[in-house]
Amino acid sequence: MLKAVKLRAVHNDALNATILVGPRGLTLYHFLLDKGKKIGCTGKCAVFWPPLIIKRGAKPTAAAGLAAKKLGTIRRPNGRYQVTYAGLPLYTFALDKRAGDVHGQGVEKTWYAISPTGKLVKRVPPAG
User: Could you tell me if residue 108 is left (phi over 0), alpha (psi between -120 and 50 degrees) or otherwise beta?
Assistant: First the structure.
């Protein structure tokens, strides 16, 4: 669990788009089945798609290019706090090992990276 979380915006060549990344530079994704305050990714899902968790009372911060006012948190069913951007709960993907990886992009047509505007990036990288 992180005490402080700083989000950054970086250009991703594979997606040809600027996307949000977390503290270790890993791509941040949103799950389309998360609706409002209801978290859809729990249990085994959260093993493959680790939620970006922050300590209770800690505040996520935004690097240049991101709107700090779009940052927030949501309480997960297990009581932990997950970072949100533009109201979208944020996750990493277990198969993304290095900064720039986007292996989770478009998985099951329900997981997508997020742009600094808070919109989903629907472009999927070419197979290769």
Answer: left
Q: What is the pTM of this model?
A: 0.94
For the chain, strand residue ranges (E) read 6-12, 17-21, 29-31, 53-54, 61-62, 71-75, 81-85, 88-89, 111-114, 120-121
Instruction: Find, among 67, 64, 52, 55, the residue nearest to 22 by Cα.
Output: 52
Contact 85, 5 (CB under 8 A): no
User: Nearest to residue 123, comparing CAs of 4, 16, 10?
Assistant: 16
* Residue 103, pLDDT score: 96
For residue 72, list its beta bridge partners.
84
Nearest to 7 by CA among 27, 36, 34: 27
Spatial separation of the C-alpha atoms in residues 71 and 5, rounded to whole Å: 10
**Residue 22's pLDDT band (boundaries 50, 70, 90)?**
very high
CB atoms within 10 A of CB 16: 10
Mean pLDDT for 44-61 is 93
